[in-house]
């Protein structure tokens, strides 16, 4: 299915799920634009949705997205879009290139690190082996595409970028049509966790080198995360960036504000419920009170945290969530991706 068809289908699903989230009525629905259908962000969104009883006054609808520039665009333009997951690299691109529009974004909560996964076919042993080869970075403007382009530019490795969704990329890896695929998201990513040993695929190590220190966190992936990609007792080093849950300050609507406040109260007060073995492991990394310097928090979230500050000590988001120190080449690569995304959007 073509990318534009997937996007149109996602918008149709969103419209069907959310008829009018800003009307004061029983059974009001807020929507959260998430990530790839096989990604962890959809699982996190579904976990949040489960906090709201089926016959309650408020529901949360999880809708596939890209955790990138399209999520930001939908959040700022589509009246039915209430919340969105956005990768920090995508947020910084939007903020630097369209500061007035990005200034309407508000932080609900940081969701901690999201790891960079580079899945490769057999015969590829390192990132350097990908030079000159076809590597999927994900749909243009997505969180994975922006972070992947920045990663390879930082390391001075020239690849042939390909723009595929996650499931298609894995299928083409198995067929030998591409050399590798970059997948960005909180571990374990369901799409990758389902890959079996016989697929002949593996995760490439990403060393925490000097040029990555300003913007990423060093992390380790293990066999328990991806049994089919990492051998027992082995670990694979990689790096992680950040994931943000955002809303937009677009309207003065008492009905929406009431519903949004109810969502924040439910999510924040039931965070311990989400940090259980039955939920995605990444919930255990969420610190609701963490801040992003210079980025305002949504009023409802700020109010709740102020009222519960003894239970939620504040801290500044550190490496992997702080403003990246872009070099000239990195800025040019990111800006090129941004322009290409804008052109595709207008077609």
Number of strands: 12
In whole angstroms, how far apart are the ends? Answer: 17 Å
The percent range for strand residues is 15-25%
CATH class of the largest domain: Alpha Beta
* Chain-averaged pLDDT: 84
Query: What is the helix tally?
Result: 12
Question: Which sheet architecture does the biggest sheet show?
Answer: 10 strands, mixed
Derived structural class: alpha/beta
Secondary-structure element string: HEHEHEHHEEHEHEHEEEHHEHEH
Q: Which parts are unreliable, with pLDDT below 50 for 5 consecutive residues or more?
A: 1-25, 316-323, 334-347
The CATH architecture of the largest domain is 3-Layer(aba) Sandwich
Choose one word for the global shape.
globular
Helix share, percent: 25-40%
Number of domains: 2
The CATH superfamily of the largest domain is known as Periplasmic binding protein-like II
CATH domain fold name of the largest domain: D-Maltodextrin-Binding Protein, domain 2
Q: How large, in whole angstroms, is the Cα Rg? A: 19 Å
Keywords:
347 residues, alpha/beta, D-Maltodextrin-Binding Protein, domain 2, ten-stranded mixed β-sheet, two-stranded parallel ribbon, globular, disordered N terminus, disordered C terminus
Overview of this protein structure:
With 347 residues, the chain is an alpha/beta fold. The protein has two domains: 3-113 and 243-316, 3-Layer(aba) Sandwich (D-Maltodextrin-Binding Protein, domain 2), CATH 3.40.190.10; 114-241 and 324-346, Periplasmic binding protein-like II (D-Maltodextrin-Binding Protein, domain 2), CATH 3.40.190.10. 35% of the residues lie in helices and 21% in strands. It is built from twelve helices and twelve strands. It has helices at 3-17, 40-49, 69-77, 88-97, 99-102, 143-154, 166-174, 190-193, 254-269, 271-274, 299-307, 328-346, and strands spanning 28-33, 58-63, 83-87, 105-121, 134-136, 160-162, 180-185, 201-203, 217-222, 235-248, 290-291, 315-316. The strands form two sheets. Strands 1, 2, 3, 4, 5, 6, 7, 8, 9 and 10 form a ten-stranded mixed sheet that branches. The chain has a two-stranded parallel sheet with strand order 11-12. Strand 11, helix 11 (299-307) and strand 12 form a beta-alpha-beta unit. Helix 6 (143-154) packs antiparallel against helix 12 (328-346). The two termini are 17 Å apart.
């Amino acid at each position: 299915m073509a990318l534009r068809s997937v996007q149109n289908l996602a918008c149709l699903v969103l419209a069907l799920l959310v008829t009018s989230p800003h009307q004061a009525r029983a059974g009001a629905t807020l929507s959260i634009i998430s990530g790839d259908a096989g990604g962890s962000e959809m699982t996190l969104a579904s976990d949040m949705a489960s906090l709201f009883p089926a016959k309650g006054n408020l529901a949360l609808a999880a809708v596939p997205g890209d955790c990138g520039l399209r999520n930001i665009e939908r959040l700022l333009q589509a009246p039915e879009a209430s919340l969105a997951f956005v990768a920090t690299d995508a947020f910084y691109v939007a903020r630097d290139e369209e500061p007035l529009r990005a200034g309407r974004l508000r932080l609900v909560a940081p969701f901690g690190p999201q790891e960079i996964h580079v899945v490769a076919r057999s015969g590829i042993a390192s990132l350097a082996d990908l030079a000159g080869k076809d590597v999927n970075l994900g749909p243009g403007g997505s969180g994975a595409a922006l972070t992947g382009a920045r990663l390879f530019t930082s390391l001075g490795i020239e690849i042939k970028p390909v723009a595929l969704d996650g499931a298609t990329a894995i299928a083409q890896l198995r067929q030998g049509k591409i050399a590798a695929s970059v997948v960005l998201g909180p571990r374990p990513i369901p799409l990758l966790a389902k890959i079996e040993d016989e697929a002949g695929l593996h995760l490439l190590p990403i060393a925490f080198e000097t040029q990555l220190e300003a913007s990423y966190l060093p992390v380790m992936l293990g066999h328990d995360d991806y049994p089919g990609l990492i051998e027992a007792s082995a670990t694979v080093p990689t790096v992680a960036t950040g994931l943000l849950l955002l809303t937009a300050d677009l309207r003065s609507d008492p009905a929406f504000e009431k519903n949004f406040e109810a969502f924040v109260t439910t999510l924040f007060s039931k965070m311990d419920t989400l940090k259980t073995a039955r939920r995605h492991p990444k919930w255990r990394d969420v610190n609701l009170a963490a801040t992003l310097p210079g980025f305002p928090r949504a009023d409802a979230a700020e109010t709740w945290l102020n009222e519960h500050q003894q239970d939620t000590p504040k801290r500044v988001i550190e490496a992997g969530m702080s403003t990246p120190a872009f070099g000239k080449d990195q800025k040019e690569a990111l800006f090129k991706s941004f322009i290409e995304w804008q052109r595709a959007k207008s077609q």
